[in-house]
Amino acid sequence: MRVQLPDTPARADLLAARPTLWLNPDLRSGGIADPDLPVRPEQVAEASANWQHLAPLLQAVFPELRATGGHIRSDLIEATALRPALGYGGFEFGRIFVKADNALPVAGSIKARGGVYEVFMFAQDLARRNGLLSPTDDITKLAGPEARALFARHMIAVGSTGNLGLSVGIAARALGFRAAVHMSLDAKPWKVERLRKLGVEVVLHEADYTTAVEKARDEAESDPLIYFVDDERSQTLFFGYSAAAAELATQLQASGVTVDVDHPLFVYLPCGIGGAPGGVAYGLKAIFGDAVHAFFVEPVQSPCAIVHMMSGQRDLVSVYDVGLTNRTEADGMAVARMSAFVAEVMRPMLSGVFTVADDDLFRWLEKANRLQGIMLEPSATASFAGPDFIVQSPEGQRYLRERDLTDKVGYATHILWATGGSFVPADQFHDFLRRGAALNT
Ligand SMILES: Cc1ncc(COP(=O)(O)O)c(C=O)c1O
After folding, report:
1. What is the arithmetic mean of pLDDT over 182-197?
2. How much is the average pLDDT of 73-84?
3. Is ligand 1 within 6 A of the CB of residue 161?
4. Which residues does the UniProt record annotate as the domain Tryptophan synthase beta chain-like PALP (predicted)?
5. How far apart are CA 140 and CA 151, in angstroms?
6. pLDDT, average across residues 22-46
7. pLDDT given for residue 206 in this prediction
8. Which of 292, 313, 417, 441 is most exposed, with minimal Cβ within 10 Å?
């Protein structure tokens, strides 16, 4: 299929794989309240309550969560040292923070928020259905021998470019489930190794992510003892991510940041299939409404959210359909076709999507490490281009003008969501640094 995209200011750059910003023409004030959406804003608070309920169990099975009472949280770091090196020294950029999901405990990436949540919610549900847990029972019963024996009879399967597989595999094995991770050809060997050491069955596909997910889904459908974590469709994953919004709101308040229509919050979220950025964006919309402006970021060769949302078509459009290759070093974002569910939910509330070149990812990775001491993988730096697109590019300035934000942007806060990296082995990280340093000189 060859698809003709509508003539928007972003189209020429998009098709030529040059960095660009696409603004969503369907963004609407109060879009989250759209009654036709398949999800409700109340589900965000429900997810936070579920995380709270699961915390004692998480603390019991993951020693690294003892210090946080079972909460999987990341720091919010003001990018004081980094911002001048990114070109954001001026007052017109407001305040700039890095949300350090790269260092999230348990899985070392934003995927801990979705994958761990879905596995633990499934475990709770399975135990209840099997009469092992009543709603009033202590949730830590699920770390006990009876529950483990039940879980050992079940398998959890997932398709992944790497990090979702890590988070699901780690969570599943921690509770005693069998686990199978279907990896796309983008998956990094260290992620495969790490999962195999945990006893996860890793199936390597010589195909892209969409195919890996399809294969995993087909296998799960043929066996009632396999539970499939469906990255293309799962609302559980989506709401697991969404709980990050309340965490960020608390941290912003602690940092003295006001968020309202006069003090806008711009959030930049690396996007693969869309679940993680979609869930976080939805959670933030549920809390801050129109005061938050959510942008996705994608590699120039894998802009699946832009091509689909820009096409305006109902059927999913992939990056191959417009002649792009889906080749990128940003393995977490090497996705050719976005989630139809996320596309539908984001349609009235996503501000836009911008794209970034692989070389820039390495430049930023090196700067973030040298200046701010943060360890990132290439995908995780993609958000760093956000303030530049908003404040300096013609399309960013059009966005500000059309929303009456031009005079307010100096009072804005920008969140660069850093989505993964702390689990990268030292030798590979040094290779990343070397490549970034060479590009930065
Ligand atoms: C580091 C990193 N960032 C961003 C993403 C994008 O998340 P999603 O595929 O849910 O859009 C991923 C996905 O694996 C990732 O690993």
Report:
1. 90
2. 97
3. yes
4. 76-386
5. 14
6. 96
7. 87
8. 441
pLDDT of residue 272: 97
Q: Residue 341 corresponds to which amino acid?
A: F
164 lines ligand 1 (CB under 6 A): yes
Question: What is each CA distance from 434 to 363, 366, 427, in whole angstroms?
Answer: 10, 8, 11
Record: fold of 111-233: Rossmann fold (3.40.50)
Angle between helices 117-129 and 235-242 (to 10 degrees): 120
pLDDT at residue 187 greater than cutoff 90? no
The structural architecture, per CATH, of the domain 11-107+238-440 is: 3-Layer(aba) Sandwich (3.40)
Q: Residue 76: which pLDDT band, with cuts at 50, 70 and 90? A: very high
CA angle at 210 for the pair 204 and 212, rounded to the nearest 5°: 20
Give pLDDT, residue 2.
Answer: 82
So what's the pLDDT on residue 1? Answer: 63
Please determine whether the domains at 11-107+238-440 and 111-233 fall in the same fold group of CATH.
Answer: yes
Q: How far does residue 275's CA lie from ligand 1's centre (Å)? A: 8
In angstroms, what CA-CA distances link 343 with 37, 101, 282, 309, 394?
11, 23, 12, 7, 25
What's the full length of the chain, in residues? 441
The number of angstroms, rounded, from the C-alpha of 186 to the middle of its chain's C-alpha atoms is 17
What are the residues whose beta carbons fall under 8 Å from the beta carbon of 392, sequence distance 6 or more?
Answer: none
Q: Which residues contact residue 162 at a Cβ distance below 8 angstroms, ignoring those fewer than 6 apart? A: 183, 186, 187, 188, 191, 331, 332
Cβ neighbours for 67, distance < 8 A, ≥ 6 positions apart? none
Which of ligand 1's atoms lies nearest the C-alpha of 102? 1
Q: Give me the residue spans of the domains in the chain.
A: 11-107+238-440, 111-233
Instruction: State residue 180's pLDDT score.
Output: 96
- Return the best residue to mutate from 164, 182, 339 for the ligand 1 pocket (most ligand atoms within 8 A of CB): 164
User: For the segment 168-185, what is each residue's pLDDT rounded down to a tens digit?
Assistant: 999 999 999 999 999 988
- CA of 163, closest atom in ligand 1: 16
Residue type, 156: I
